[in-house]
Amino acid sequence: MQKIDWLDVLDIAIELNDTFPEIDPQWISFPDLHQKVCNLENFVGDPSKSSEKILEAIQSHWIEEYQ
User: Fold this and answer.
1) How confident is the model at residue 1 (pLDDT cuts 50, 70, 90)?
2) Contact 59, 25 (CB under 8 A)
């Protein structure tokens, strides 16, 4: 399994979509999204290194994957 970090936004989105198929990412809060990313099995990023811009990119890709 490939290790992912904050800048792997598409890989994170795909992983989130696979892990949480019941969640509509359009309505997720950034704190909740941040927590879910940090809890992914293959996520190795530093939790303090995220930003609103990164979370927006992850959410945008996740919405595309979800649809």
Assistant:
1) confident
2) yes
